Records
---
Amino acid sequence: MTSESPGLRRRFGWRGRAARLWDTLRDLTTNSPARFAVGVFVVLILIFTLLYSLPAAAADGQRTPFADALFTAVSTICVTGLSTVNMYTHWSPFGHVLTFLGVNVGAMGVLTLASILGLVISKRLGLRAKLIAAGDSNPLRAHGGPVNEGQTVRLGEVGGLLATVALSTLAIEAVLAILLYPSLLMAGIDPLAALWEAPYYAAMSFTNTGFVPNADGLAPFADDYFLLGVLMVGVFLGQLGFPVIFTMARKKWHFRLWSLHAKLTVITTMLLFFLGAGAILLLEYANPRTFGSMDAWDTTFQSFFMSAMTRSGGFAVVDMGELHGSTLVVGSMLMFVGGGSASTAGGIKVTTLAILALAVWSEAKGRRSVEVFGRRVPSDVQRVALSVVAWGATIVALSTITITQITQAPVEDVLFDVISGFATVGLSTGLTETLPDPAVYVMALTMFMGRVGTVTLAAAVAATSRSQLYSLPVERPIVG
């Protein structure tokens, strides 16, 4: 009998462990893509936390406290825009580059990013991975039951969707940066500094993050409607979502040929945009601390700007802490809804709101099914929409109660910042910067739950689904 040398055993042992780890990752991408997606975001957050903790990332060369580094990493990867430190003065150029890269990685979305990494590992997209990738535009894809192919991107088009995500991100941000650069020069920004600030603003607008590359934020550009308008366009495109961009790229402006998801997303987005602006204008036009000193045109424009930013944009010209309490409530409602599915925006998503509104309307009309644009919405989608709202409201409520108890701050300020974190908006009344470490961890968890998505988390916990081959007797409880 021949004996292997210790070096040979160590060599083959290392290779064996590496092969087993590789096989485990490959099986995870095909058998449980939702858990893999959550794992990808966790790993990214840990990596960026470590990088933000490095002395080189801070402007003063000192190590950033763990709570602040973790919060910044979560806010960056989850494209939220909230911060516990001054994002301009605290970080070094290396730290600002980390932020720029982090928001673009996070903007690709947890499911899309997981599908791309899964493709690299497994050399192919398995059927369940394709279902999950398509599921970001239609949550029914992650569940059993009949699926209407016209509602979302088909399985064979997932590769095209992934390519659209990367190409559209680069192309849109490049165009936005080109448009922003002249405005920055006219505002007196140094040409070399503007070469950095233009793509930075472009990335923060399209990813709906809202970080700014200067100390004064948007205050110097409060009257530059072209620059603010470009930012609004970037935020709006980011809110639409990649499936909608994919559909519009293929079908152009032929609205009748759009998928039902694209139709509902665009219509609901525009409806909320105008209704939100109208409500903000009505509530704030006489507030001397915000719009009271502006003329009619300025007030109208700023109302539309705030309506767009409360949907997930995160940029602000006026101090959120100076708004009326009623306006904060309207802003909280807009933030909770958020943008489109598979987009850079957060919230429960506009299609979720649209489905629930259609279900209520159908129930009021006595219809047996929910129908819109000549299509019937399956009951599975309605149940998922209801679940998303219920889980989202639960997360917001628990976080608000916990942070209020820790800080003893006014509940309206806590609620606004918690919803901003959950919906990955980034607007703040000023509370987030003053949070103690325990509340910082709660807010970071809230941002993570809001970005990963309640549907994804539910699918990750219950990775296996069982078919029920029998039906129980029906009994109707009293509702309402």
---
Amino acid sequence: MNISTADRLQHTGEYYFSQKLREIEAMNQAGVAVINLGIGSPDLPPHPSVIEALNTTAEQPNTHAYQGYQGSPALRQAIADWYQLSYQVELNPANEILPLLGSKEGIMHISMTFLQAGDEVLIPNPGYPAYRAAAQLSGATPVDYDLTAATHWQPDLEALARRDLSRVKLMWLNYPHMPTGAPADRAVLQRLVAFAAEHHILLVHDNPYSFILNDNPQSLLAVPGARDVALELNSLSKSHNMAGWRVGMLVGRAEWLQQVLRFKSNLDSGMFLPVQRGAIAALGLGADWFEQLNATYQARREQVFNLLTTIGCTFDRQQTGLFVWGAIPAGYADGYALSDELLHQAKVFITPGGIFGSNGNDFIRVSLCQSESVLTAALERIITARSSAPVSSTM
């Protein structure tokens, strides 16, 4: 039978990493053993107390049933306490917090709840590809707004205000920014809140990197007036080494969260209770957890700086987050060319910046989610490949 796909998939391709991981896996099966420095999936475990909470709860006979769509009251209270302590943001756990099965699903839930054909969505370029895909699947039209090194990867709101914004319903933000590592700027966040209020735009701030190599964690909801125009996504994937656990949250205005719940409740049946108990333990960890975590990432980042210098890339040493963003050296058409060369000659995979938008074409992104020994091995492979390459080769 010839079964056609839905029109909504017309402009939505398979996620880049889904495709690339198949290529890397095929190389691995052929005996190549690629070193993957591409994906930001933490290689470190959660805190032992988190594992203990998961196991203890899972051993109880009455903890395996369906759970509530809004998560347990204890989890919502733990999130509220975490936001108060970490960001000085007060949230009502009864109706201003919606736990999610990872914040990525929240991107889709928000898009399907508020967007439809005829709406426009402001998407950062470069930015997380899921924003664009979710907009397209909702039927809305993605509209890029430029982020560049010249503006320190912050939006040019004056330029945006000069375009027709009458159909723009939603604007995606992400600070600390992925992939560039640009930190949140309080003054810029304040201007964004004022911009959204003036143009009647819903801001959605995606905030999973605020604790990684960042001394000043910020929430958009801490900005005066933000609750009237903004929602915020957050996650334990990066900050607590729980990527596979799929624990995220959407916080903000109660009536907006209730509308998102209308959509979400038709797609899942709640979060496994032992996972919720593990998340509660994670949210209760003190500052020493982040100090230890960031000491590890700091050491790894220095190694990545060395690797990028060896390749000939330039970069900002002050960037934050789980990755390092580097400008490619002269002689390459784009980051894809450099990425492919490293993969096939040195057997090291580094993400091309172009997957995040056209403004990323001249960049690459390196993950910090590999041990120091693996990063050392990657550097050694690159040095060996460069020394053995023909003189005419860029490598």
